[in-house]
Write a structure and sequence with these properties.
- By secondary structure, the chain is an alpha/beta fold.
- It has two domains: 167 residues, Cobalamin-binding domain (Rossmann fold); 216 residues, Alpha-Beta Barrel (TIM Barrel).
- The strands form three sheets. The protein has a seven-stranded mixed beta sheet with strand order 2-1-3-4-5-6-7, sandwiched between helices.
Length: 497
């Protein structure tokens, strides 16, 4: 018997796109919560649903561990958890049902539980933990251990049922932790490391693990939901991060790391000190992370290269300044070009997150994004359509246009859930065409060829690229809501031959 069985609802094989990519990472947020509980003497077990089927396996774990409390504690560092995918919500509800059938106390935490608090409570959860929740979970579990029917109203950051037909009771907000070095390293000893290693080695020939150097993001893009950390930002000390990198390499055999921070490298002085500490402790491991283009100065890129950075994912979103301003991104297109150059000069792969379909975007704006991609040639792309999440200004703007579907089923869904300029099929076709074009640049041959050349110079990808862009053109003409015409370079590339 254990005091707490921790789990989460993200299962890789429920997500078609991520299953194909096969880049599974342990549930970092869940492991932080487990480490805090263990630090205070509580016995803890973990059911990690990333690579295990949550339906039969979770019930087996309940019988094996006979926990007093079940905590469905999502990995709030996983952007897929933040998207509140309905397939994962269904998995969470199934876990609640299974635990409650055995009479257990069930606690839920995560973006989806915060946004749909009443729904989780109606499904049987006894408590929802709101915001940053390690300390809330610890206080709640200790209260339940000492007195199963004890008083919980004095615990900050809780929501629980308020009686029949009543709104949930919410206790006062819990202040965020500022000194993150006080936290123990995540309890990675609870995961099946070898299963992750096999999955990575079989798919990619190397093994990657995840960590974070900070929590939160102070920028205020109006489409970005922040139900856990709000607009705060707190960073660990550079030395603590370097020591964890060393442990991941030496103890767990990681060949590569993924910094799962919302925003890495916000302070150039921190990045320089981080590089110094990595070199001092001989902790260099190749890593990737995500940041903003306006933070990728030459000095920061050079420090990142010193510390082992191989790849930076930047939230570029659009090549249209009009759309960036509408998003309140606080970014200029010229800064994307400068960041691309700074990273290239330091041998770091530059990758873009793009977002199509934001309200007010026309084909003229889309063509600017296509042109930016072709002119700056990123090493990879992540393409999505605008996704309204509760609590954002963007959500308020389109709320009345939403139908019954308010979340994607999985990360491949790419459905437009409000009235956009074009259909979901158009954006999916645009996603495919731009992805395949960028992938074609990685093949043999010159890296500075034009799209027209790639479609006529014998490239194996040329026929596929041409076919995909023709589909984009047909769908654009079918759904056109403006008088804009297709990008001239696109139509040139679609010439016969």
């Amino acid at each position: 018997m254990v005091d707490v069985l921790l789990t989460h609802s993200y299962h890789l094989l429920y997500d078609r796109k991520q299953a194909r990519k096969m880049q599974p990472y342990p549930p970092l947020g869940t492991l932080y919560a487990a480490a805090v509980l263990k630090q205070h003497g509580l016995s803890v077990a973990l059911f990690d649903s990333m690579l295990e089927d949550p339906e039969p396996e979770f019930q087996a774990q309940l019988k094996r561990h006979r926990p007093k409390v079940v905590a469905i504690y999502e990995d709030n560092f996983n952007f897929l958890s933040k998207m509140c995918l309905t397939r994962m919500r269904a998995a969470a509800f199934g876990m609640i049902r299974a635990a409650k059938s055995l009479g257990l106390t069930v606690v839920a935490n995560g973006s989806d539980a915060s946004d749909h608090c009443r729904e989780y409570l109606d499904r049987g959860a006894d408590f929802v933990l709101l915001g940053e929740a390690e300390e809330t979970l610890l206080e709640l579990v200790e209260a339940l251990m000492h007195c199963p029917r004890g008083e919980t109203s004095g615990i900050r950051g809780l929501a629980y049922a308020g009686g029949r037909n009543a709104n949930p009771v919410r206790t006062p907000f819990r202040p965020l932790m500022k000194y993150l070095d006080a936290l123990p390293f995540p309890a990675r000893e609870l995961i099946n490391v070898e299963k992750y290693r096999r999955a990575w080695n079989d798919a990619h020939g190397f093994f990657s693990l995840n960590l974070v150097a900070s929590r939160g993001c102070p920028y205020r893009c109006n489409w970005c939901a922040k139900p856990i950390y709000g607009d705060s930002f707190h960073a660990r000390s550079p030395e603590s991060v370097a020591l964890e990198m060393l442990e991941l390499r030496e103890k767990y055999g990681a060949d590569h790391l993924w910094f799962a921070d919302d925003l890495f490298g916000i302070n150039n002085r921190w990045v320089a000190e981080f590089a110094d500490q990595v070199e001092r402790h001989r902790a260099i491991v190749s890593f990737k992370m995500q940041s903003r283009a306006d933070l990728m100065t030459r000095e920061t890129a050079a420090a990142l290269a010193r510390s082992g950075c191989a790849e930076v994912w930047m939230g570029v979103e659009s090549g249209s300044q009009k759309i960036l301003d509408a998003m309140q991104k606080g970014l200029h297109v010229e800064q994307v070009c400068a960041a691309r150059q700074s990273l290239r000069e330091n041998g770091i792969r530059a990758c873009y997150f793009l977002q199509f379909g934001y309200p007010g975007e026309t084909w003229h704006d889309i063509e600017k994004t296509i042109r930016l991609v072709r002119e700056t040639r990123p090493d990879d792309l992540g393409i999505s359509v605008s996704y309204p999440l509760p609590g954002t200004r963007f959500y308020s703007q389109v709320r009345e246009q939403l139908g019954e579907k308010t979340n994607w089923v999985d990360s491949q869904d790419l459905s437009m859930m409000f009235k956009g300029a074009y259909s979901s099929d158009f954006y999916r076709a645009l996603h495919d065409a731009l992805h395949i074009e960028v992938e074609s640049w990685r093949g043999p041959g010159p890296w500075n060829f034009s799209l027209h050349d790639s479609c006529s110079a014998g490239s194996e990808s040329a026929p596929e690229i041409t076919s995909l862009w023709r589909r984009v053109e047909r769908l654009e003409q079918t759904c056109r809501n403006s008088d804009a015409t297709l990008l001239p370079v696109l139509t040139d590339a679609l010439a016969e031959g």
